[in-house]
Amino acid sequence: MADTLLSGFRALDLTDEKGSACGKIMSSLGVETIKVEKPGGDPARAIPPFLHDEPDPEKSLHWSAFNTDKKSITLNLESNQGQELFRRLVEKSDFVLESFTPGYLDSLGLGYEALARVNPRIIVTSITPFGQKGPYAQYKGSELIASAMSGVLVTNGDPDRPPVREGPDSIYFRSDAAAALGTVIAHYHREMTGQGQQVDVSLQEVAVSRTSSNLVAWEFDKRLIKRNATIRTVGARATQWLWQCKDGYVFWPYMGGKGGSRGNRALSQWIDDDGLDNPLKKVTNWEEFDFAAISREELDVHQEAIRNFFMNHTRKEIAEEGFRRKINAAVVNSPADVLEDPQLRARSYWVDLEHPELDTRLTYPRHFFLCNQTENFVRQRAPLIGEDNLDIYADELGLSGAEIKALKEAGVI
Amino acid sequence: MAEKGSMPEQALAGVKVLDFGWALVGSLTSKQLADHGAQVVHVESITRIDLSRANRMTSGSSATNPDDKPWFTHLNTSKLGICLNLKCAPSKSVIERLVRWADVVNANMVPGALGRLGFGYEQLSAIKPDIIMAEGSAYGQTGPMAHEWGVDGTGGALSGYIDLTGWPDRGPVGPNVPYGDVVLPFFIATAIVAALDYKRRTGKGQYIDASMLEVCAHQITPALLDYEANGHLQTRNGNRIAYAAPHGVFPCRGDDRWCAIGVFNDEEWEAFCRATGGPPWTKEPRFATLNSRKENEDALEALVAEWTGKHPAEEVMRIMQAAGVPAGVVQTMEDVAENDPQLKEREFLVPLKHPVMGVFGHPTPPYKLLKTKAQVKTSPCLGEHTEYVCTQLLGMSDEEFIELWQQGVLR
User: Which of A209, A214, A334 faces B366 most closely, judged by CB atoms?
Assistant: First the structure.
């Protein structure tokens, strides 16, 4: 097997749905990632969808999606024996990933300071709604709450309805990427100095960090940018970025200046070739085209023509002919379309993983990025509950069969 | 740890980055490294102005001054800035020296563009075989779409992210903030730092090819599996999710004020009922279980909205959170920048002085290394460090520097 970027390191992953993608990123980099679940399994295994719509902790497709390549052990961290076993695992590990309410692990004697006494090199990455400290640290959170509190949610949706969430759990996913980044930076420093530390990730802050363009509009002009459906405000003018076409939707940002010039010119040409009314033709120099310099009315006339144009074409035409003409459009794909996307297929983006216990095989994204010296790939389905108990407790910690049996009976594992 | 009076140590101290990054993806990738102590030399040119130096996002931004754009500053903190016209032949010798100096090269031009300038991975790794080079792009460096240009929503549209966002009876929508452009940099920076550690252990460099489409598609994996395994094609569903009810954004007292609430389990439902003072409807059997609440969600949401509408959003959040129910005000930028006590206490925005724009808030990395804290400095003005980098970091003689300057290479 080809090498991975971080093979030879080990993570203990205590996270629920808020943090599971962080461990997935680490495991794709080759970190041996052990999900430490409470007896009965991670509560996030209750999240739908389920295979064949059968609610069952071993059939959550949501859980499967973000826990690939991990091992699983069960452990009751609230028992003394469980805490002792956990400390022994920490001695032999490089990372702990967790998403408990701040203070919970401290109350079990397993907070960062306590774990650092066991293993000063340990890096503890904590992913929580509002971070480890501060007046909201004990507040409950979620994808939607983080979006609300960050200034992202207020900018999304139709003006005549409540602000609306992003469909996928985008804030969890990006927070977990931020957490992986913080973890790897702390790791680099640890390898240079021997010093571990805690990495504190707040879902709210991760979401706020997307809002720079709106933050500066407030800070400099006291201007608030609100939800406006398919209209995007970046700079002086709000322009349409999402358009309806004959059989779906298309992303085509109407942008000024050099950035938009090639696509604008190509689109204008296509409108002409279609024989449609084309007010864009009046623009002679697209490189210098500045939305700040044209009137709102003129912009409306442009956008009306573009709306008519897209309604005249199918997704397929826009994808194929649009690509040939370099209009820089992207069709809005459904999940089914994504699986068929030719670009993803050409890059071997998909991998089939066997689920022998479920008598099925499912196709997963294979990589987050490609490297020329290493293969940081998704390779194996998510684990069953406690699937690796024997390997870890017997082989790794050297517990006897009788000891493991006793721990099971005591409800520790 | 730190000597008295000196700056405390940073996690990536000693790492050297040659940065061709621009727009959002490239700029934000190297910002993560720079804020944590890497020395980042950001290469720009007056002949190819960065998107964020040109965008007149604020009223005080001019069409002519590249240094009066706060958006650029947010994206490019803590870096050194040099001007180098890559289309001028003598720039090659400067780049060669920068590559020898650097551990990492970061870029996000349209695939192939850097190679055509003579600075692709093949050319740079010939100069320094163990260089780590990362390139971010919309589609990736290979495949039929590789050379196509894209922006934030390109990845969002093609990956299914946009299709899943909005109301079931209407077309898709997107927030007025980026997603693809801001999630990809975290992955590239992760790959770069992991590659630095890999190089420490193996001596080998690395080429990293990261695509916005691929990262964005990854996050919809549950919807992909649901389609493959069950034939369910997920689509827009407003604010509802399958495993919580009520789960939505509810109107509050005031103009366009809202509070998000999510009730995920029975315990939280009981807490919700207590928090609202237990009006009769909360005791109705049709709302007693998650399943029954899901079945009667329209009626449930209308009743919740009736209750929230009587209170300011902040009060709804306080009451709910005090009872143990996840809730959060739909904050505006004013709330975020001025009034949020959590962000304030955690110093998410640090006020820093920029030589042209004065003092304003600069966002810190949203992941805090508690021992080796990020140290955010303001962004460079265009070419601010050209002389320092050439003469001090690269050891160029004054004569050569002046000659390059006169040839117009350093602009």
Answer: A209
pLDDT of residue A1: 53
Q: What are the tens digits of pLDDT across the range B28-37?
A: 999 999 999 9
The answer to whether the CB atoms of A335 and B223 lie below 8 A apart is yes
Q: Is residue A390 located within the same domain as residue A268? A: no
Verify whether the Cβ–Cβ distance B249 to A197 is below 8 Å: no
Is a pLDDT exceeding 70 seen at residue B271? yes
Across the interface, whether the CB atoms of B172 and A206 are under 8 A apart is answered: no
Give the separation between CA B322 and CA B320, rounded to whole angstroms.
5
Nearest Cβ partner of B177 from A182, A210, A374?
A210
Q: What pLDDT was estimated at residue B4?
A: 44
Asked if A306 and A371 sit in the same domain, the reply is no
A242 to B220: CB separation less than 8 angstroms, yes or no: no
- B78 vs A: CB within 8 A: no
Confidence (pLDDT) at A256: 84
Q: Kindly list the residues from chain B whose CB atom is less than 8 angstroms away from the CB atom of residue A8.
A: 201
Specify the DSSP element, H or E, that contains B96.
helix B91-101
Residue A222 lies in a domain: no
B383: left (phi over 0), alpha (psi -120 to 50) or beta: left
Report the DSSP beta bridge partners of residue A95.
A11, A123
> Out of A195, A198, A338, whose CB is closest to B220?
A338
Q: What does the mean pLDDT of chain B come to?
A: 96
Quick check: A103 and A133 in contact, CB under 8 A?
A: no
Residues 6+ apart with CB under 8 A from B104: B15, B16, B17, B18, B33, B38, B131, B132, B133, B134, B192, B195, B196
Q: Considering CB atoms only, which of A49, A185, A333 is closest to B193?
A: A185
Confidence of residue B121 (pLDDT cuts 50, 70, 90): very high
Residue A12 main-chain phi, psi, to 5 deg: -105, 120
Query: Are residues A146 and A164 both part of a single domain?
Result: yes
- Global pTM? 0.98
Contact A156 B165 (CB under 8 A): yes
Answer whether B58 sits within 8 Å of A220, measured CB to CB: yes
Burial of residue A159 (CB within 10 Å: 0-12, 13-18, 19+) is exposed
Q: Chain B: give the shortest CA distance to residue A2, in Å.
A: 13
**A207-230 pLDDT tens trace:** 999 999 999 999 999 999 999 989
- Inter-chain residue contact B176 with A228, CB threshold 8 Å: yes
pLDDT digits 0-9 by tens, A230-253: 998 876 678 999 999 999 999 999
Q: Are residues A15 and A162 in the same domain?
A: yes
A167–B164 CB contact, under 8 Å = yes
Which CATH number is correct for B16-218+347-407, 1.20.1050.10, 3.40.50.300, 3.40.50.10540, 1.10.540.10? 3.40.50.10540
Residue of B nearest to A224 (CA): B333
CATH superfamily of B247-332: formyl-coa transferase, domain 3 (3.30.1540.10)
CB pairs under 8 A between A and B: 517
Between CA B289 and CA A355 the distance in angstroms is: 32
Helices (H), A112-159: 112-118, 143-150
Provide mean pLDDT across the span B197-216. 98
CB contacts, 8 Å: B135 with chain A: none
Cβ of B195 within 8 Å of Cβ of A5? The answer is yes
CB contacts under 8 A, B 87-126 vs A, are none
Scanning every residue of chain B, which has its alpha carbon at the shortest distance from the alpha carbon of A189? B11
Out of A147, A335, A369, name the one closest to residue B227 (CB).
A335
Contact A171, A146 (CB under 8 A): yes
Phi, psi torsion values for A382, nearest 5 degrees:
-65, 155
User: Which sequence spans correspond to the domains of chain B?
Assistant: 16-218+347-407, 247-332
